[in-house]
Amino acid sequence: MSAAVQREWQRFTPAERIGRGIIYIVAVVAVIWSLRSIEVIPEFLYDAPEQTADLFRRMWPFDWGFYPKAIHDSLIETLHIATLGTILALFLALPLSFLAARNFTKNPVLNFIAQFIFVSSRSVNSLIWALLFVAIFGPGALSGVLSIAFRSIGFVGKLFGEALEEAQRGPIEALTAAGAPRSMLLIKGYWPQVEPAFWSVALLRWDINIRESAVLGLVGAGGIGVALDAALNNLYWDQVGLILAVIFAVVIVTEIVTSTIRSRIL
Amino acid sequence: MSTAAPTTRPPAFPVNWPSRIAWIGLALYTIYATSILQLTWARFVAGMDNAAKFFDRMFPPNMAADKLELIYTGMVESVQIAVLATFFGVLLSMPLGLMAARNLSPGWLAWSSRGLIAVLRSFHPVIVSILFVKAVGFGALAGVMALIVSSMGFVSKLFAEVVEEMNPKQVEAVRATGASFWNVLIMAVFPQVMARFIGLTVYQLDSNLRNSTMVGIVGGGGIGAPLFTAYQRFDYDVVLTILLIIIAIIMAMEMVSGRIRRIFQ
Amino acid sequence: MTAVLSIRHLRKEYRPGQPVLKDITLDIDARGVTAIIGPSGTGKSTLIRCINRLVDPTAGEILFEGQDLAKLSGQTLRMARRRIGMVFQEYNLVERLSVIENVLSGRLGYVPAWRALLRRFPAEDVARAFDLIDAVGLSQDFATRRADALSGGQRQRVGIARAIMQNPALVLADEPTSSLDPKTSVEIMGLMADLSEKRGVPIIINIHNVDLARRYAGRIIGMTGGEVVYDGAPEGLTDAHLKHIYGGEDFL
User: Fold this and answer.
1) What are phi and psi of C35, to 5 degrees?
2) What value, to the nearest 5°, has the Cα angle with vertex A58 and ends A50 and B112?
3) Selected residue of B9, B16, B19, B23 to mutate for chain C interface (largest C Cβ count, 10 A)
């Protein structure tokens, strides 16, 4: 055996250490810089506990009578906006995902275009999309549905595209070797593999969209946000409290439903 | 192999009822909801005319120096809001996540922590911003606090899951060597959870950056305010500039976060 | 005996100047089992995959049913592939589909898209699929089971059924037994040899187990370094030949 060599165990290579070091330093600098620049008006801060207590005092008891006339219909409308928006997004994102998946579409230009559409869709908040659509189509549920849809395309596209890229090559190879046309590779080769991921992503996004749809009304895009906006403007805090409680209840129920279904599918 | 006609063959393609019901249900629902919301093609087409005028006002994007300066300040503030919200949000999520982990903490504590996390997650950051604006006034502080709340809702839940999925054997193995509690933590627990934790943090930074662009619409600071102001004044060319900058920054952030995740893998 | 497949001067370089297949010229008869043996990396798998163009050859001709497969592309390549079945080492079934759907996917090159989409395959195809499930040694109630519920040996049987479902003029098998235990390997090799004989379909098997090759093949092709160094009956395969093919005596 050769002479014993002095060996040091290092967890990371020098390059990795430098990389990690830089990131830590940048993170610390960023936090300090942000802390110094944030405007905090001390009077407001001291006042905060009192303001918060005041807020809760005004909210409770809820204005229960407010429910039937104003809230119920807009709540249903919110649910429709969320669901239709999700369905529309799935419909649009699905073909784009196939374009974005590098194992299915070999053309890098198409891959890039699809990915770019997804990133842009994700970068703009549904609230901001709502601003745009309200300016074009006017206030109402149409703008809401489009906002939800356009925001969700990026989310669905990215996750579903990743599921496609992780599909096993083997079965696809076998179908190619048997002379199956491309459409069949898609339907009988890729789709059976990614179908669970599709439903999982769809349910996840629907859950998130319920939350998002509730606030679109603040800028006029329909749903319960409209009632919330009115109540806030009039400072009817007890109505605000009721609306928030209703939103909370719906979100919790939706979450339970979607997690149950998702745990069954996966 | 017999050539007699087989008598006991199962049907080749038994109907998958859950799947079939799901697809039919979706189709029926779409038709129903579209008519209830009165989403007719006519309305859509009518909007196209408006859309043309709208795009006309948007292009070309407004690059005037004073506007750009305003946008720059606003964007910087949004980034700062995102950084602080992520930092404090993740910091606070660690104890909360540990408390919510059913394999580490007693039943009642885990249960109530999970309940708290559920509440934190249920409200949209915009709604939480409105409440914080009432409590601490307009400005970035309200935005930061609102995003801390939403970050905690997300990160603690996932962190709790990471802790719950931790492999107990590795912890046992290190314990069996007689290591102290802290050493066990460092050598067995942290390596398993660290990579995912960094991933969560980076993801949350990304998410907070997206959200910080809109809390300003309700008074929470950042670029949302100039965006909304320009919007209400019909200065759509300024709106376009802001949107393009937001998209560019978020794209850059996505690339950076991908790199960071790989370095820490 | 007419050749079903004629390979002329086939050459494949993954990297320029480093050919994996050097100059392969072979004729495959329209009957019988041909085994290709040789060490890993010697191009056996590449050769098999060049035939149905899962890998594109750098140079040479592959003559099959009156066409040069090396020159086909698009629709014509697809139609030619329908006539060649393939069995894979990792079975390559679509795991979430049922056994019978996997077997019927051998017909995807033949049925129109709407039929496959709605699962309304022609009745005689479905009947044949059931017969094939039977012929590969699986009972009828396997038909509606999901492929991922099957063992390795059972999955390979389905893979074989899928290949035969194409009614092919030739079947290729790329290390079909390498993921199976010894007993199952023997069963699968026996099954393939049996089907080849009964249905008159020639099979080319890429295999690294020399004993199995000797037992079931009518012709053995030994490759090393990208070239054919033995081509003949299993009886003629001596230790000297094996030493040449595999290099070194350790494995004997």
Assistant:
1) -110, 135
2) 75
3) B9
Instruction: Write down the CATH number for the domain with range A57-265.
Output: 1.10.3720.10
Q: For B4, name the nearest residue in chain C, comparing CA atoms only.
A: C131
For residue range C57-110, list pLDDT tens digits in order. 999 999 999 999 999 999 999 999 999 999 999 999 999 999 999 999 999 999
Interface ipTM: 0.92
Strands C67-68 and C227-232: unpaired
Domains of chain C (ranges plus CATH)? Answer: 1-82+204-252 (3.40.50.300)
User: In degrees rounded to 5, what are phi and psi of residue B214?
Assistant: -115, -15
Q: What gap in Å lies between CA B106 and CA B99, rounded to an integer?
A: 8
> What is the distance in angstroms between the Cα of A191 and the nearest Cα belonging to chain C?
10
In this structure, which CATH number among 3.40.30.10, 1.20.1560.10, 1.10.3720.10, 3.40.50.620 belongs to the domain B57-263? 1.10.3720.10
- So what's the pLDDT on residue B28? 94
Question: Which of the residues B59, B136, B234, B245 would you substitute to probe the A interface, choosing the one with the greatest number of A C-beta atoms within 10 Å?
Answer: B136
Dihedral of CA atoms A139, A141, A144, A149 in degrees, nearest 10, equals: -140
Distance CA B118, CA A251 (A): 10
CB distance A237 to A228 below 8 Å: no
User: Cα(A139)–Cα(C189) distance, rounded to whole angstroms?
Assistant: 70
Calpha distance A214→A223 (Å, rounded): 6
Mean pLDDT of chain A: 87
How far apart, in whole angstroms, are the C-alpha atoms of residue A16 and residue B264? 8
**Core vs surface per residue A76-99: b (16+ CB within 10 A) or e:** ebbbbbbbbbbbbbbebbeebbbb
Assess contact for A81 and B37: CB atoms under 8 A.
yes
A34 to chain B, closest Cα gap in Å: 5
Task: Give CA–CA dist A220/B206, Å, rounded.
Answer: 27
CB contacts under 8 A, A 2-21 vs B, are: 16, 19-20
pLDDT tens digits, one per residue of C8-48: 999 999 888 888 999 999 999 999 999 999 988 788 999 99
CB contact under 8 A, A122 and B260: no
Task: For residue C106, give the DSSP letter.
Answer: G
| CB-based contact, B1 to chain C, within 8 Å | yes
Separation of first and last alpha carbons in chain A? 53
A106, A175, A187, A266: which to substitute to probe chain C, counting the most C Cβ within 10 Å? A175
Considering only CB atoms, A178 lies closest to which of C90, C91, C106, namely C106
Decide if A142 contacts A85 (C-beta within 8 A).
no
